[in-house]
Amino acid sequence: MTDAIVAEGLVKRYGSVVALDGLDLTVPEGTITGLLGPNGAGKTTAVRVFTTLLEADEGSARVAGLDVRKQADELRTKIGLSGQYAAVDDNLTGFENLDMVGRLYHLGRARSRERARELLARFDLEDAADRPVKGYSGGMRRRLDLAGALVAKPTVLFLDEPTTGLDPRSRLGMWDVIEELVKGGTTLLLTTQYLEEADRLADQIAVIDHGRVIAEGTADQLKDQVGGERLELSVATSAELSTAAGTLAGLAVGQIDADDRQNHLTVPVTGGSSVLMEAIRRLDAESVKVLDIGLRRPTLDDVFLALTGHVADDSAQGEQK
Ligand SMILES: Nc1ncnc2c1ncn2[C@@H]1O[C@H](COP(=O)(O)OP(=O)(O)OP(=O)(O)O)[C@@H](O)[C@H]1O
Ligand SMILES: [Mg+2]
């Protein structure tokens, strides 16, 4: 398999701010790679370098086999980009916006119009097609911007936070479109603040922080890195907490963590639901009154927290762009 994106040692500085600090990344052709990272990690900067909008100070990058610096013009015809902030012309209608993109890509008059109509239908914008974009809602703009990125059927597509500002239904719709595109052979680099989205869509995930990749792998590989399953339980009293800890010691595969302020116990385990049933049996035999008990697998949120020291920022949720 060839690689659609190969970046080596990318550095980008803004004055004293180092936005990219030796970023290495490889994205195999035909896959979805999720770029995750906290605000300011360098995700948008990386996307801008890959899409020739920004020149890195150091390092190199090839996209679709072309050097982003030396073959920028040719590369632009092979990629699509939907940026973090929708880039649509307010004074034009939805149709005119897409038609214009088609002309810019030299699709020709007839083909541009046809493609514009096709995409408007696909993104549920047919009814609004001939209205000026200034009257569109945030979600409609986002969809139009995404449609714009698809006009030229790009071989490599860059989506910077494609579903930020979309309602849950539109987000699901977007996921379908994305999955369909990738089935058709498009390679996708996606940045997102929604870990659930990366978990669902991405074949591989690169977590970046302070301008460099700090972890890479499939969602499962990353989850395994932060640790396996655990039992979480709450009891009413501290006496019961220590009884429970003693009772469950035999099931633990690592250090048991007891939080005596919350009367909460975290027990690392393996074995899935059978270990949960066994735990309940043992606690019952010791007459420990359990308020709450459950088996947890690490989520990507846990991964993110473990790696970057902060939780993923969902503050952009619902924001209209
Ligand atoms: N044009 C600019 N001028 C100065 N500093 C910039 C500029 N663009 C980005 N930066 C800085 O570079 C760093 C990386 O920014 P970038 O936009 O790439 O982060 P991001 O990961 O996309 O964040 P977010 O999740 O908020 O979109 C930040 O510290 C940011 O302040
Ligand atoms: Mg960004």
From TrEMBL:
The protein's matches in SMART domains, at most eight in alphabetical order, are given as: AAA
Arranged from A to Z, the UniProt key words for this protein are: Antibiotic resistance, ATP-binding, Cell membrane, Membrane, Nucleotide-binding, Translocase, Transport
An example Gene Ontology biological process: response to antibiotic
| Membrane topology note | Peripheral membrane protein
Instruction: Tell me which domain of life the UniProt entry assigns to the organism this sequence originates from.
Output: Bacteria
Gene Ontology MF annotations:
ATP binding; ATP hydrolysis activity
Q: Name one Pfam family in it.
A: ABC_tran
List the InterPro entries: AAA+_ATPase, ABC_transporter-like_ATP-bd, ABC_transporter-like_CS, ABC_transporter_ATP-binding, DrrA, DrrA1/2-like_C, P-loop_NTPase
| Compartments where located | Cell membrane
UniProt domain ABC transporter: residue ranges: 5-235
- One Gene Ontology CC term in the entry: plasma membrane
Q: Which family does it belong to?
A: Belongs to the ABC transporter superfamily. Drug exporter-1 (DrugE1) (TC 3.A.1.105) family.
Q: What is this protein called?
A: ABC-2 type transport system ATP-binding protein
